[in-house]
Amino acid sequence: MEKRVRVRFAPSPTGGLHMGGVRTALFNYLFAKKHNGDFILRIEDTDQTRFVAGAEEYIVNALKWCGIPPNEGVGFGDGPHKPYRQSERKELGIYKRYAEKLIASGHAYYAFDTNAELEEMRKRMEAAKVVAPQYNAVTRQNMRNSLTLPEEEVKKLLDANAPHVVRLKVPRNEEIRFEDIIRGWVTVNSSQVDDKVLLKSDGMPTYHLAHIVDDIEMQISHAVRGEEWLPSAPAHILIYRYLGLENQMPKLAHLPLILNPDGNGKISKREARFPVFPLSWKDPRENAPFIGYKESGYYSDAFINILALLGWNPGDNKEIMSIEEMAAIFDFERVSKSGAKFDPDKAKWFNQQYLRKQSDLDLAKEFMPVLIEKGIVKDENFVVEFCKLVKEKVQFTHEFWEQGKYVFIAPKTFDEKVISKKWNATNKDLFNKLLTKFTTVATWNSQTLHDEFANAQNEIGKLDMQLLRVLITGVAGGPQLFDLLALIGKDESLNRLNHAINSIPFAN
Length: 508
Known about the structure:
Blueprint: E1 6-9, H1 19-34, E2 38-41, H2 55-66, E3 72-73, H3 86-90, H4 94-104, E4 108-111, H5 115-127, H6 151-159, E5 165-168, E6 175-180, E7 184-189, E8 197-199, H7 207-217, E9 222-226, H8 233-242, E10 251-255, E11 258-259, H9 300-308, H10 323-329, E12 340-341, H11 344-357, H12 360-373, H13 380-390, H14 400-404, H15 416-422, H16 425-439, H17 446-459, H18 465-473, H19 481-488, H20 490-503
Parallel strand pairs: 1-2, 2-3, 9-10, 11-12
Antiparallel strand pairs: 4-5, 5-8, 6-7
Helix pairs in contact: 1-10, 9-11, 12-13, 16-20, 17-19, 18-20
Protein backbone atom coordinates (compact mmCIF):
# COMPACT_ATOMS: atom_id res chain seq x y z
CA MET A 1 0.00 0.00 0.00
CA GLU A 2 1.34 3.42 -0.98
CA LYS A 3 2.43 5.49 2.00
CA ARG A 4 0.35 8.61 2.65
CA VAL A 5 2.25 11.75 1.71
CA ARG A 6 3.28 13.54 4.88
CA VAL A 7 5.93 16.25 4.68
CA ARG A 8 7.29 18.67 7.22
CA PHE A 9 8.92 22.06 7.30
CA ALA A 10 11.18 22.09 10.33
CA PRO A 11 12.94 25.43 10.86
CA SER A 12 14.96 26.41 13.91
CA PRO A 13 13.78 29.48 15.87
CA THR A 14 17.20 31.08 15.59
CA GLY A 15 16.14 34.11 13.54
CA GLY A 16 13.77 35.31 10.86
CA LEU A 17 12.70 32.92 8.12
CA HIS A 18 14.58 33.95 4.98
CA MET A 19 13.51 33.30 1.40
CA GLY A 20 15.50 30.06 1.14
CA GLY A 21 13.53 28.64 4.03
CA VAL A 22 10.26 29.86 2.53
CA ARG A 23 11.07 28.07 -0.72
CA THR A 24 11.67 24.83 1.22
CA ALA A 25 8.29 25.28 2.90
CA LEU A 26 6.68 26.09 -0.46
CA PHE A 27 7.98 22.94 -2.18
CA ASN A 28 6.76 20.85 0.74
CA TYR A 29 3.38 22.57 0.57
CA LEU A 30 3.01 22.07 -3.20
CA PHE A 31 3.96 18.40 -2.98
CA ALA A 32 1.52 17.75 -0.14
CA LYS A 33 -1.26 19.64 -1.89
CA LYS A 34 -0.76 17.74 -5.14
CA HIS A 35 -1.04 14.39 -3.37
CA ASN A 36 -3.78 15.40 -0.90
CA GLY A 37 -1.29 14.82 1.86
CA ASP A 38 -0.28 16.54 5.09
CA PHE A 39 2.06 19.49 5.55
CA ILE A 40 3.41 19.85 9.08
CA LEU A 41 5.25 22.70 10.81
CA ARG A 42 7.73 21.34 13.33
CA ILE A 43 10.01 23.59 15.35
CA GLU A 44 13.48 22.15 15.75
CA ASP A 45 14.66 24.01 18.84
CA THR A 46 17.30 21.54 20.01
CA ASP A 47 19.97 24.25 20.16
CA GLN A 48 18.66 26.35 23.03
CA THR A 49 21.78 28.54 23.03
CA ARG A 50 20.77 29.97 19.65
CA PHE A 51 17.08 30.49 20.45
CA VAL A 52 15.85 33.98 19.45
CA ALA A 53 12.74 35.46 21.03
CA GLY A 54 10.01 36.13 18.48
CA ALA A 55 11.45 33.85 15.81
CA GLU A 56 8.81 31.16 16.16
CA GLU A 57 5.97 33.68 15.87
CA TYR A 58 7.68 35.18 12.86
CA ILE A 59 7.85 31.79 11.12
CA VAL A 60 4.14 31.18 11.69
CA ASN A 61 3.15 34.67 10.49
CA ALA A 62 5.41 34.41 7.45
CA LEU A 63 3.83 31.13 6.31
CA LYS A 64 0.38 32.64 6.75
CA TRP A 65 1.25 35.74 4.71
CA CYS A 66 2.79 33.59 1.99
CA GLY A 67 -0.43 31.60 1.71
CA ILE A 68 1.21 28.23 2.42
CA PRO A 69 -0.24 27.28 5.81
CA PRO A 70 0.52 23.84 7.23
CA ASN A 71 -2.52 21.79 8.15
CA GLU A 72 -0.84 20.53 11.31
CA GLY A 73 1.85 21.74 13.68
CA VAL A 74 3.00 24.72 15.74
CA GLY A 75 0.55 27.58 15.29
CA PHE A 76 -1.70 25.60 12.95
CA GLY A 77 -3.47 22.98 15.02
CA ASP A 78 -2.71 19.72 16.75
CA GLY A 79 -2.70 16.29 15.19
CA PRO A 80 -2.04 12.83 16.58
CA HIS A 81 1.71 13.42 16.81
CA LYS A 82 1.86 16.48 19.04
CA PRO A 83 3.81 18.16 20.52
CA TYR A 84 5.64 19.71 17.57
CA ARG A 85 8.46 21.50 19.38
CA GLN A 86 11.47 19.26 19.93
CA SER A 87 12.15 20.82 23.32
CA GLU A 88 8.71 19.59 24.43
CA ARG A 89 9.20 16.20 22.84
CA LYS A 90 12.50 15.80 24.66
CA GLU A 91 10.61 15.96 27.96
CA LEU A 92 8.66 12.89 26.89
CA GLY A 93 11.90 10.90 26.75
CA ILE A 94 11.44 10.03 23.07
CA TYR A 95 14.96 10.85 21.91
CA LYS A 96 16.71 9.24 24.87
CA ARG A 97 14.90 5.99 24.17
CA TYR A 98 16.20 5.87 20.61
CA ALA A 99 19.72 6.86 21.70
CA GLU A 100 19.78 4.08 24.27
CA LYS A 101 18.73 1.59 21.58
CA LEU A 102 21.72 2.65 19.48
CA ILE A 103 24.05 2.32 22.47
CA ALA A 104 22.68 -1.11 23.34
CA SER A 105 23.28 -2.35 19.79
CA GLY A 106 26.85 -1.02 19.79
CA HIS A 107 26.19 1.68 17.18
CA ALA A 108 26.56 4.63 19.54
CA TYR A 109 28.72 5.37 22.56
CA TYR A 110 29.23 7.75 25.47
CA ALA A 111 31.93 10.40 25.09
CA PHE A 112 33.22 12.23 28.17
CA ASP A 113 35.71 14.57 26.47
CA THR A 114 35.96 18.11 27.79
CA ASN A 115 36.05 21.14 25.50
CA ALA A 116 39.76 21.47 26.24
CA GLU A 117 40.39 17.87 25.22
CA LEU A 118 38.42 18.33 22.01
CA GLU A 119 40.41 21.46 21.20
CA GLU A 120 43.66 19.64 21.88
CA MET A 121 42.58 16.87 19.49
CA ARG A 122 41.85 19.41 16.76
CA LYS A 123 45.25 21.03 17.21
CA ARG A 124 46.98 17.65 16.96
CA MET A 125 45.16 16.91 13.74
CA GLU A 126 45.94 20.33 12.29
CA ALA A 127 49.61 19.85 13.18
CA ALA A 128 49.44 16.57 11.26
CA LYS A 129 48.18 18.54 8.23
CA VAL A 130 44.64 17.17 8.45
CA VAL A 131 42.47 19.65 6.54
CA ALA A 132 39.22 19.05 8.41
CA PRO A 133 39.83 17.59 11.89
CA GLN A 134 36.94 15.54 13.14
CA TYR A 135 35.94 13.08 15.82
CA ASN A 136 35.83 9.83 13.86
CA ALA A 137 36.82 6.16 13.74
CA VAL A 138 40.50 7.10 13.98
CA THR A 139 40.55 9.94 16.50
CA ARG A 140 38.02 8.37 18.88
CA GLN A 141 40.61 5.74 19.79
CA ASN A 142 42.62 8.44 21.61
CA MET A 143 39.70 10.16 23.32
CA ARG A 144 37.78 9.63 26.58
CA ASN A 145 34.74 7.57 25.64
CA SER A 146 33.05 4.29 26.38
CA LEU A 147 35.02 2.63 23.58
CA THR A 148 38.39 3.39 25.18
CA LEU A 149 37.62 3.54 28.90
CA PRO A 150 37.15 0.44 31.08
CA GLU A 151 33.52 -0.58 31.53
CA GLU A 152 33.73 0.03 35.28
CA GLU A 153 34.95 3.60 34.77
CA VAL A 154 32.20 4.30 32.27
CA LYS A 155 29.59 3.09 34.74
CA LYS A 156 31.14 5.17 37.49
CA LEU A 157 31.09 8.31 35.33
CA LEU A 158 27.49 7.74 34.32
CA ASP A 159 26.39 7.09 37.90
CA ALA A 160 28.09 10.34 38.93
CA ASN A 161 26.26 12.21 36.15
CA ALA A 162 29.58 13.25 34.66
CA PRO A 163 29.08 15.55 31.64
CA HIS A 164 28.94 13.49 28.48
CA VAL A 165 27.42 13.25 25.04
CA VAL A 166 26.22 10.30 22.99
CA ARG A 167 27.97 9.89 19.63
CA LEU A 168 27.17 7.80 16.58
CA LYS A 169 29.74 5.06 15.97
CA VAL A 170 30.55 5.44 12.28
CA PRO A 171 32.40 2.51 10.69
CA ARG A 172 35.95 3.20 9.54
CA ASN A 173 35.83 2.32 5.83
CA GLU A 174 32.42 1.52 4.47
CA GLU A 175 30.50 2.70 1.39
CA ILE A 176 27.26 4.44 2.31
CA ARG A 177 24.82 4.61 -0.58
CA PHE A 178 21.45 6.31 -0.71
CA GLU A 179 19.00 7.67 -3.26
CA ASP A 180 17.95 11.30 -3.46
CA ILE A 181 14.85 12.17 -5.48
CA ILE A 182 16.60 15.19 -7.00
CA ARG A 183 20.22 14.02 -7.20
CA GLY A 184 19.87 10.32 -7.88
CA TRP A 185 22.17 7.81 -6.19
CA VAL A 186 24.82 9.24 -3.86
CA THR A 187 27.77 7.22 -2.56
CA VAL A 188 30.03 8.38 0.26
CA ASN A 189 32.81 6.56 2.10
CA SER A 190 32.32 6.50 5.86
CA SER A 191 35.87 7.81 6.33
CA GLN A 192 34.43 11.21 5.33
CA VAL A 193 31.75 11.05 8.04
CA ASP A 194 32.38 12.08 11.63
CA ASP A 195 30.89 10.53 14.74
CA LYS A 196 27.94 12.89 15.07
CA VAL A 197 26.77 13.92 18.51
CA LEU A 198 23.28 12.50 18.99
CA LEU A 199 22.53 13.60 22.55
CA LYS A 200 24.17 16.66 24.10
CA SER A 201 25.34 16.90 27.68
CA ASP A 202 22.06 18.59 28.70
CA GLY A 203 20.09 15.63 27.34
CA MET A 204 18.83 17.63 24.38
CA PRO A 205 19.10 15.76 21.08
CA THR A 206 20.98 17.24 18.16
CA TYR A 207 19.33 17.68 14.79
CA HIS A 208 20.96 14.47 13.59
CA LEU A 209 19.00 12.27 15.98
CA ALA A 210 15.94 14.43 16.64
CA HIS A 211 14.78 14.89 13.06
CA ILE A 212 15.08 11.16 12.39
CA VAL A 213 13.11 10.21 15.48
CA ASP A 214 10.44 12.78 14.73
CA ASP A 215 10.18 11.81 11.06
CA ILE A 216 9.64 8.20 12.09
CA GLU A 217 7.21 9.02 14.90
CA MET A 218 5.27 11.45 12.69
CA GLN A 219 5.24 9.01 9.75
CA ILE A 220 6.91 11.48 7.39
CA SER A 221 7.00 10.14 3.83
CA HIS A 222 9.39 12.67 2.25
CA ALA A 223 12.14 14.67 3.96
CA VAL A 224 12.72 17.81 1.90
CA ARG A 225 15.50 20.12 3.02
CA GLY A 226 18.30 22.36 1.81
CA GLU A 227 21.44 21.24 0.06
CA GLU A 228 23.52 22.21 3.09
CA TRP A 229 22.31 19.00 4.80
CA LEU A 230 23.56 16.73 2.02
CA PRO A 231 26.99 16.12 3.66
CA SER A 232 25.21 14.95 6.82
CA ALA A 233 22.89 12.58 4.98
CA PRO A 234 25.28 9.56 5.11
CA ALA A 235 25.31 9.74 8.91
CA HIS A 236 21.53 9.92 8.88
CA ILE A 237 21.33 6.85 6.67
CA LEU A 238 23.45 4.97 9.19
CA ILE A 239 21.17 6.00 12.06
CA TYR A 240 18.11 4.70 10.21
CA ARG A 241 19.99 1.50 9.43
CA TYR A 242 21.21 0.95 12.97
CA LEU A 243 17.72 1.54 14.34
CA GLY A 244 16.35 -1.04 11.91
CA LEU A 245 14.18 1.61 10.27
CA GLU A 246 15.54 1.82 6.73
CA ASN A 247 12.29 0.52 5.29
CA GLN A 248 10.40 3.32 7.10
CA MET A 249 12.86 6.05 6.15
CA PRO A 250 11.37 9.03 4.31
CA LYS A 251 12.45 9.59 0.73
CA LEU A 252 15.11 12.30 0.63
CA ALA A 253 15.14 15.45 -1.48
CA HIS A 254 17.94 18.01 -1.09
CA LEU A 255 17.02 21.33 -2.69
CA PRO A 256 19.61 23.45 -4.52
CA LEU A 257 20.81 26.74 -3.11
CA ILE A 258 19.33 30.09 -4.02
CA LEU A 259 22.32 32.06 -5.28
CA ASN A 260 22.86 35.81 -5.24
CA PRO A 261 22.44 37.66 -8.57
CA ASP A 262 26.14 37.29 -9.35
CA GLY A 263 25.92 33.52 -8.94
CA ASN A 264 29.02 33.44 -6.76
CA GLY A 265 27.46 32.35 -3.49
CA LYS A 266 24.21 31.71 -1.67
CA ILE A 267 22.01 34.63 -0.76
CA SER A 268 22.97 36.30 2.48
CA LYS A 269 20.46 37.80 4.89
CA ARG A 270 22.58 40.97 4.74
CA GLU A 271 21.99 41.40 1.02
CA ALA A 272 21.38 45.12 0.53
CA ARG A 273 20.07 45.08 -3.05
CA PHE A 274 16.75 43.41 -2.34
CA PRO A 275 14.71 41.95 0.54
CA VAL A 276 15.64 38.51 1.84
CA PHE A 277 12.86 38.02 4.40
CA PRO A 278 9.13 37.65 3.58
CA LEU A 279 8.16 40.01 6.41
CA SER A 280 10.31 42.68 8.03
CA TRP A 281 12.45 41.16 10.75
CA LYS A 282 14.36 42.79 13.58
CA ASP A 283 16.77 40.52 15.35
CA PRO A 284 16.83 41.48 19.05
CA ARG A 285 20.59 40.89 18.98
CA GLU A 286 21.14 43.50 16.27
CA ASN A 287 20.21 47.13 15.72
CA ALA A 288 19.26 47.30 12.06
CA PRO A 289 15.96 45.76 10.95
CA PHE A 290 15.67 43.78 7.72
CA ILE A 291 12.92 45.02 5.39
CA GLY A 292 10.55 42.33 4.16
CA TYR A 293 8.94 41.61 0.80
CA LYS A 294 5.53 42.50 2.21
CA GLU A 295 6.71 45.88 3.48
CA SER A 296 8.55 46.49 0.20
CA GLY A 297 5.24 46.31 -1.63
CA TYR A 298 5.30 42.78 -3.01
CA TYR A 299 2.12 40.76 -3.29
CA SER A 300 2.41 37.44 -1.48
CA ASP A 301 1.27 35.58 -4.62
CA ALA A 302 4.03 37.26 -6.61
CA PHE A 303 6.63 36.41 -3.98
CA ILE A 304 5.58 32.75 -4.00
CA ASN A 305 5.57 32.65 -7.80
CA ILE A 306 9.13 34.03 -7.81
CA LEU A 307 10.35 31.40 -5.34
CA ALA A 308 8.66 28.50 -7.11
CA LEU A 309 10.70 29.06 -10.25
CA LEU A 310 14.01 29.25 -8.39
CA GLY A 311 15.22 25.74 -9.03
CA TRP A 312 11.98 24.21 -10.32
CA ASN A 313 11.03 23.94 -13.99
CA PRO A 314 7.30 23.42 -14.60
CA GLY A 315 8.03 21.97 -18.02
CA ASP A 316 6.87 24.83 -20.22
CA ASN A 317 7.50 28.54 -20.69
CA LYS A 318 4.65 29.64 -18.48
CA GLU A 319 5.83 31.93 -15.67
CA ILE A 320 2.74 33.41 -14.02
CA MET A 321 0.96 30.67 -12.08
CA SER A 322 -1.40 30.50 -9.16
CA ILE A 323 -0.45 28.27 -6.28
CA GLU A 324 -3.20 25.86 -7.35
CA GLU A 325 -1.68 25.63 -10.83
CA MET A 326 1.77 25.03 -9.36
CA ALA A 327 0.52 22.29 -7.04
CA ALA A 328 -1.23 20.48 -9.87
CA ILE A 329 2.02 19.96 -11.79
CA PHE A 330 4.70 20.04 -9.09
CA ASP A 331 7.18 17.21 -8.69
CA PHE A 332 10.73 16.93 -7.37
CA GLU A 333 12.01 15.32 -10.56
CA ARG A 334 11.86 18.77 -12.19
CA VAL A 335 13.87 20.40 -9.42
CA SER A 336 17.39 21.24 -10.53
CA LYS A 337 20.54 19.92 -8.86
CA SER A 338 22.39 23.19 -9.39
CA GLY A 339 21.83 26.50 -7.62
CA ALA A 340 19.37 29.06 -8.96
CA LYS A 341 20.40 32.68 -9.35
CA PHE A 342 17.98 35.22 -7.95
CA ASP A 343 17.22 38.14 -10.27
CA PRO A 344 15.91 41.22 -8.38
CA ASP A 345 14.70 42.86 -11.59
CA LYS A 346 12.77 39.76 -12.57
CA ALA A 347 11.23 39.73 -9.10
CA LYS A 348 9.95 43.26 -9.66
CA TRP A 349 8.57 42.19 -13.02
CA PHE A 350 6.65 39.39 -11.32
CA ASN A 351 5.13 41.86 -8.89
CA GLN A 352 4.16 44.12 -11.77
CA GLN A 353 2.27 41.26 -13.43
CA TYR A 354 0.35 40.59 -10.23
CA LEU A 355 -0.35 44.29 -9.72
CA ARG A 356 -1.90 44.46 -13.17
CA LYS A 357 -4.12 41.51 -12.27
CA GLN A 358 -5.64 43.45 -9.36
CA SER A 359 -8.93 45.22 -9.94
CA ASP A 360 -8.77 49.01 -10.21
CA LEU A 361 -10.99 49.20 -7.14
CA ASP A 362 -8.61 47.06 -5.09
CA LEU A 363 -5.66 49.16 -6.21
CA ALA A 364 -7.55 52.32 -5.26
CA LYS A 365 -8.21 50.93 -1.78
CA GLU A 366 -4.50 50.18 -1.43
CA PHE A 367 -3.56 53.68 -2.57
CA MET A 368 -6.18 55.74 -0.67
CA PRO A 369 -4.24 55.71 2.64
CA VAL A 370 -1.33 57.43 0.88
CA LEU A 371 -3.64 60.25 -0.25
CA ILE A 372 -5.15 60.57 3.21
CA GLU A 373 -1.68 60.77 4.71
CA LYS A 374 -0.86 63.62 2.32
CA GLY A 375 -4.07 65.47 3.14
CA ILE A 376 -5.63 64.93 -0.28
CA VAL A 377 -9.36 64.30 -0.44
CA LYS A 378 -10.67 62.54 -3.53
CA ASP A 379 -13.68 60.28 -3.93
CA GLU A 380 -13.15 56.60 -4.58
CA ASN A 381 -14.30 56.75 -8.21
CA PHE A 382 -11.66 59.37 -9.00
CA VAL A 383 -8.92 57.25 -7.43
CA VAL A 384 -10.15 54.15 -9.28
CA GLU A 385 -9.82 56.00 -12.60
CA PHE A 386 -6.41 57.27 -11.57
CA CYS A 387 -5.19 53.74 -10.80
CA LYS A 388 -6.54 52.51 -14.13
CA LEU A 389 -4.43 55.13 -15.91
CA VAL A 390 -1.20 54.75 -13.97
CA LYS A 391 -0.99 51.02 -13.18
CA GLU A 392 0.77 50.14 -16.44
CA LYS A 393 3.66 52.40 -15.41
CA VAL A 394 4.37 50.97 -11.95
CA GLN A 395 5.68 47.78 -10.38
CA PHE A 396 4.47 48.51 -6.83
CA THR A 397 1.46 50.28 -5.37
CA HIS A 398 3.70 52.70 -3.48
CA GLU A 399 4.97 53.98 -6.86
CA PHE A 400 1.54 55.38 -7.76
CA TRP A 401 2.28 58.65 -6.00
CA GLU A 402 5.59 59.36 -7.68
CA GLN A 403 4.24 58.29 -11.05
CA GLY A 404 1.10 60.40 -10.89
CA LYS A 405 1.18 62.96 -8.09
CA TYR A 406 0.66 65.69 -10.72
CA VAL A 407 -2.93 64.44 -11.06
CA PHE A 408 -3.62 65.60 -7.50
CA ILE A 409 -1.26 68.58 -7.26
CA ALA A 410 -0.66 71.16 -10.02
CA PRO A 411 3.00 71.25 -11.04
CA LYS A 412 5.29 74.01 -9.80
CA THR A 413 8.19 72.99 -12.01
CA PHE A 414 8.25 71.90 -15.63
CA ASP A 415 10.54 69.50 -17.47
CA GLU A 416 13.57 71.67 -18.21
CA LYS A 417 14.72 69.69 -21.21
CA VAL A 418 11.38 70.00 -23.02
CA ILE A 419 10.90 73.67 -22.04
CA SER A 420 14.39 74.74 -23.11
CA LYS A 421 13.95 73.02 -26.46
CA LYS A 422 10.33 73.80 -27.31
CA TRP A 423 8.98 76.75 -25.31
CA ASN A 424 9.07 79.92 -27.39
CA ALA A 425 6.86 82.79 -28.50
CA THR A 426 5.41 80.83 -31.41
CA ASN A 427 4.32 77.92 -29.24
CA LYS A 428 3.03 80.30 -26.57
CA ASP A 429 0.75 81.87 -29.15
CA LEU A 430 -0.40 78.44 -30.42
CA PHE A 431 -1.23 77.19 -26.94
CA ASN A 432 -3.10 80.39 -26.09
CA LYS A 433 -5.31 79.66 -29.08
CA LEU A 434 -5.71 76.02 -27.97
CA LEU A 435 -6.72 77.26 -24.52
CA THR A 436 -9.46 79.38 -26.08
CA LYS A 437 -10.64 76.43 -28.18
CA PHE A 438 -10.66 74.04 -25.21
CA THR A 439 -12.71 76.55 -23.22
CA THR A 440 -15.61 75.92 -25.61
CA VAL A 441 -15.55 72.13 -25.22
CA ALA A 442 -18.92 71.11 -23.79
CA THR A 443 -18.31 67.39 -23.24
CA TRP A 444 -14.97 67.02 -21.48
CA ASN A 445 -13.93 63.43 -22.14
CA SER A 446 -10.98 61.68 -23.73
CA GLN A 447 -12.50 61.17 -27.17
CA THR A 448 -13.83 64.72 -27.48
CA LEU A 449 -10.48 66.18 -26.42
CA HIS A 450 -8.67 63.97 -28.91
CA ASP A 451 -10.96 65.19 -31.70
CA GLU A 452 -10.71 68.85 -30.66
CA PHE A 453 -6.91 68.65 -30.55
CA ALA A 454 -6.86 67.07 -34.02
CA ASN A 455 -9.11 69.85 -35.34
CA ALA A 456 -6.91 72.46 -33.71
CA GLN A 457 -3.90 71.05 -35.52
CA ASN A 458 -5.63 71.93 -38.80
CA GLU A 459 -7.12 75.25 -37.72
CA ILE A 460 -4.43 76.75 -35.49
CA GLY A 461 -1.19 75.16 -36.61
CA LYS A 462 1.22 72.43 -35.52
CA LEU A 463 0.79 71.79 -31.78
CA ASP A 464 3.38 69.77 -29.87
CA MET A 465 1.58 67.13 -27.76
CA GLN A 466 4.55 66.53 -25.47
CA LEU A 467 4.72 70.25 -24.72
CA LEU A 468 1.00 70.21 -23.88
CA ARG A 469 1.65 67.38 -21.47
CA VAL A 470 4.47 69.31 -19.77
CA LEU A 471 2.33 72.45 -19.43
CA ILE A 472 -0.43 70.42 -17.73
CA THR A 473 1.57 67.95 -15.65
CA GLY A 474 5.12 69.27 -15.46
CA VAL A 475 6.57 65.99 -16.75
CA ALA A 476 7.39 64.73 -20.22
CA GLY A 477 5.87 61.25 -20.04
CA GLY A 478 2.93 59.43 -18.56
CA PRO A 479 -0.41 57.82 -19.37
CA GLN A 480 -2.47 58.61 -22.46
CA LEU A 481 -2.71 62.41 -22.45
CA PHE A 482 -6.39 62.90 -23.23
CA ASP A 483 -7.41 60.27 -20.69
CA LEU A 484 -5.34 62.25 -18.22
CA LEU A 485 -6.98 65.57 -19.09
CA ALA A 486 -10.41 63.97 -18.78
CA LEU A 487 -9.53 62.72 -15.29
CA ILE A 488 -8.07 66.04 -14.10
CA GLY A 489 -11.24 67.78 -15.27
CA LYS A 490 -12.02 70.80 -17.41
CA ASP A 491 -11.62 73.60 -14.89
CA GLU A 492 -8.39 72.27 -13.41
CA SER A 493 -6.91 71.51 -16.85
CA LEU A 494 -7.71 74.96 -18.19
CA ASN A 495 -6.39 76.67 -15.06
CA ARG A 496 -3.13 74.74 -15.29
CA LEU A 497 -2.72 75.45 -18.99
CA ASN A 498 -3.41 79.16 -18.46
CA HIS A 499 -0.98 79.36 -15.53
CA ALA A 500 1.80 77.59 -17.44
CA ILE A 501 1.38 79.72 -20.57
CA ASN A 502 1.62 82.92 -18.57
CA SER A 503 4.28 81.95 -16.03
CA ILE A 504 6.92 79.89 -17.80
CA PRO A 505 9.68 82.15 -19.17
CA PHE A 506 11.34 81.46 -22.47
CA ALA A 507 14.65 79.65 -22.25
CA ASN A 508 16.45 82.27 -24.37
